[in-house]
Structure formats: C-alpha cells, structure tokens
Write a structure and sequence with these properties.
By secondary structure, the protein is mainly β. The protein is about 0% helix and about 50% strand. It is built from no helices and 11 strands. It has strands at about 5, 10, 20-25, 35-40, 45-50, 60, 70-75, 80-85, 90-100, 100, 105-110. The strands form 2 sheets. Strands 2, 4, 5, 6, 9, 10 and 11 form a 7-stranded mixed sheet that branches. It has a 4-stranded antiparallel sheet with strand order 1-3-8-7, with no helix packed on it. β7 and β8 (about 80-85) form a beta hairpin. The termini are far apart. The relative contact order is 0.33. The model has no long low-confidence stretch (mean pLDDT about 95).
C-alpha cells in the first residue's frame, strides 16, 4: 500500500533552518509529482510547494518563495523540503502528498 512518512520537524528559532523528508513506498515514486502542504492550528491545510516527477519544475506559495526549496531523490524514493529563514507564521504540521495519499505529518514550530 502507499505509505508516506515525514520526518525532520522540530522546534527552531526565528531565522533558523530545517530540512523535512518524506520517505515514499508502495507506488512508482519517480513517476509521481509530489507536494508539501501545511496546516496551522485553527486553519485549513494549505499548499506549500510542488515538484514534478523528474524534479525539473517546481512551484511555491508566495509566502515561502526564496526561503523554501522542494527537491527529490528518485533513487531514494524521498521528497525533501529545505526551509530557511523560518518565521513564526511557518509554524504548522507539514504533510507530503503523493499518488493521492497523505503522510501523517511532522510538526514544525518556530519560536524564540
């Protein structure tokens, strides 16, 4: 079955960095576009970034452009999200989405 397992979340100070990972299994990862979403407390889940199957094209929500980078390693069936210059408003549970399935999420908290 399809399985997506996120990791790499944690507590970081404003201006800090984190790299999230999403390990995929149960489908042909190298043929699947992948995305990151996030959900802050009391808010709806929102799109963060998307990457095509080959990694050739990416797109981001405006508020994370130039700070976040989505990437993938098709040999390792893993999706990444490098997050730099983190802000308190980036605090959320981050989820990966692929092949119609969601991971369980990883908590990112940005606070001093």
């Amino acid at each position: 079955q399809v399985q997506l397992v996120e990791s790499g979340g944690g507590l970081v100070q404003p201006g800090g960095s984190l790299r999230l990972s999403c390990a995929a299994s149960g489908f042909t990862f190298s043929r699947s576009p992948m995305s990151w979403y996030r959900q802050a407390p009391g808010k709806e889940r929102e799109f963060v970034a998307r990457i095509t199957s080959t990694g050739a094209n990416t797109n981001y929500r405006d508020s994370v452009k130039d700070r976040f980078t989505i990437s993938r390693d098709n040999a390792k069936n893993t999706l990444y999200l490098q997050m730099n210059s983190l802000k308190p408003e980036d605090t959320a549970i981050y989820y990966c989405l692929g092949y119609g399935s969601w991971g369980q999420g990883t908590q990112v908290t940005v606070s001093s």
